[in-house]
Amino acid sequence: MIFDRKKLKGMTLIEVLVYLAIFGMFFVVMINFFFFVEDNNQLSGEALKIDRAIILLSQHFEDSFERTTSIGGSTIFNNNNGALYLTGPTNINYTVSDFATSDARLQFFDGAITKQITRNDVEVTKFLLEEILDNSDTNIGVEITVGIRSRADNSISNEFTNSYIFD
User: Fold this and answer.
1) Rounded to the nearest 5°, which phi and psi values hold at 66?
2) Which of 20, 49, 86, 105 meets the CB 3.0–4.6 Å disulfide criterion with 68?
3) Do residues 163 and 148 touch, judged by C-beta distance below 8 A?
4) What whole-number distance in Å separates Cα of residue 142 and Cα of residue 128?
């Protein structure tokens, strides 16, 4: 049997190499896309941890200031590593509470019990307290600025400021 080369249909070696090169480029692009999506998901997860910590701190401060009548004398203002001492009426068993930073975590002291407020996977970079004064220079509240950063990725951070007024 004699084959006629003009009637044979098939792919040449060059065509096969071109198709493999195109497929290889497509495969590399897809792999890079999957890694990009995975990295973004991880960054979003770290940002979510920080947002949750901010919500928790904001609610904790709000609850504490609802039961507070004044600020204790040991409060440290205008310092990024401030300490906040709150006093309240003794009939609700909440006489002294204290917020302070230790090991880049915010701690809450209520009597003899120390509790960590912030999670282990975030660190507090700023705990700034500023007095809110009325016209007669009487302290009526505190403006609190808290900076939080992810321990897993230092580039992910957030800062929030809230004002709390005594009732």
Assistant:
1) -65, -25
2) 86
3) no
4) 10
Report how many helices (DSSP H) and strands (DSSP E) the chain contains, helices first: 1, 8
Predicted confidence (pLDDT) per residue in 68-89, tens digit: 888 888 888 998 888 888 887 6
| Residue ranges covered by each domain of the chain | 13-165
Predicted TM-score (pTM) of the model is 0.73
pLDDT tens, residue by residue, 107-123: 887 767 778 888 888 99
Question: Phi/psi of residue 152, each to 5°?
Answer: -75, -35
Tell me the percentage of the chain whose pLDDT exceeds 70.
86
**Phi, psi (deg, nearest 5) at residue 157:** -150, 165
How far is the CA of 44 from the CAs of 51, 60, 83, 130, 152, in angstroms? 10, 24, 31, 31, 12
Contact 159, 147 (CB under 8 A): yes
- Nearest CA to 151 out of 104, 99, 101, 100 is that of 104
Long-range CB contacts (within 8 A, 24+) of 142-148: 142/65, 142/71, 142/75, 142/84, 144/61, 144/84, 146/54, 146/57, 146/106, 147/80, 148/50, 148/53, 148/54, 148/118, 148/122, 148/123, 148/124
